[in-house]
Amino acid sequence: MDDWIDYYDSTHTIYASRLHRDVHFEEIARDIIGYIPAPDAVVLDYACGEALSAAKVAAACGRLILAEPAPGVRGRLIARFAPITKIRVRSLDELRHMEEMSVDLAVMNSVAQYMTPDELDAAFKVMKRLLKPGGKLVVGDILQPDVGMGRDVAALIQLSWKHGFLKDAVWGLVRTALSDYRQLRTRIGLQRYPEAEMLAKLAAAGFSASRAPVNIGHNPWRMTFVARHAL
Ligand SMILES: C[S@@+](CC[C@H](N)C(=O)[O-])C[C@H]1O[C@@H](n2cnc3c(N)ncnc32)[C@H](O)[C@@H]1O
């Protein structure tokens, strides 16, 4: 396994159970919907993963573009959402050829930690080109340098307690500790940014940004940033 895209294209165990996976995507969809500015908005979910609750997001906007680099995941997205004409599935490369200034909201949740800083700058550039002036970019689940893996474990335990999958979560943590995830996390690591550095990175990419009061999804120790396409 070479990188995180390979990992997410594999039969990984990042979700402790089917219920965990479903709860995760429900929460992400709920939070994305909260950022949709109008019922006819064009929304881009950048590196969306399995996006199991994307039908709900699509119902709340005019068009939903699901962009995903992992080819196996993308194949499943195409099959899963074929009946929903509001949803389009794209590779990240295909985004570069989309019409500029055509997107109202771009969301990139829980992705920046898997990218090099240069890859993240390139992704910001792609989304800047696609966003309409005044459009919004929401970057979620950013890890801070001083917050360790213990907080990820605590956040999962809290989520599983709330939704009744505590036992599965504990087994899931054991499986993950013995898996490719742990090896990749040790070998490649996860990219972390202090709040000020992420704000500076977004400013350098031409956005005026601020930190949102709450993170997207279940982990309150990670950060979300809301960035406006500066005119
Ligand atoms: C934790 S999943 C997040 C999926 C979804 N956005 C969510 O919030 O559930 C990480 C995603 O990042 C993608 N990814 C991993 N490494 C990447 C990279 N270097 N560039 C772009 N995407 C990457 C994976 O294919 C996967 O879809």
What oligomeric state best describes the polypeptide chains here?
single chain
Largest sheet: 7 strands, mixed
Q: What low-confidence regions span 5 or more consecutive residues with pLDDT below 50?
A: none
Bound molecules: S-adenosylmethionine
SSE topology string: HHEHEHEHEHEHHHHEE
User: What is the CA-atom radius of gyration, in angstroms?
Assistant: 17 Å
Mean pLDDT: 95
Total number of strands: 7
CATH topology, which one? Rossmann fold
Per CATH, the superfamily is Vaccinia Virus protein VP39
Determine the N-to-C terminus distance: 42 Å
Percent of sequence in beta strands:
15-25%
CATH class: Alpha Beta
Descriptive account of the structure:
- This protein has helices at 4-9, 18-35, 54-59, 71-81, 92-95, 117-130, 149-163, 166-177, 180-187, 195-204; strands at 42-46, 63-67, 87-90, 103-109, 131-142, 207-211, 223-229.
- It has a single domain, classed as Vaccinia Virus protein VP39 (Rossmann fold, 3-Layer(aba) Sandwich), CATH 3.40.50.150.
- Strands 3-2-1-4-5-7-6 form a 7-stranded mixed beta sheet, with helices on both faces.
- It is globular, with a radius of gyration of 17 Å.
- Helix 7 runs antiparallel to helix 8.
- With 231 residues, the protein is α/β, with parallel strands linked by helices.
- It is built from 10 helices and 7 strands.
- Helices cover 45% and strands 19% of the residues.
- The structure holds S-adenosylmethionine.
- Residues 4-5, 8, 28, 47-49, 68-70, 109-111, 114-115, 119 line the site of S-adenosylmethionine.
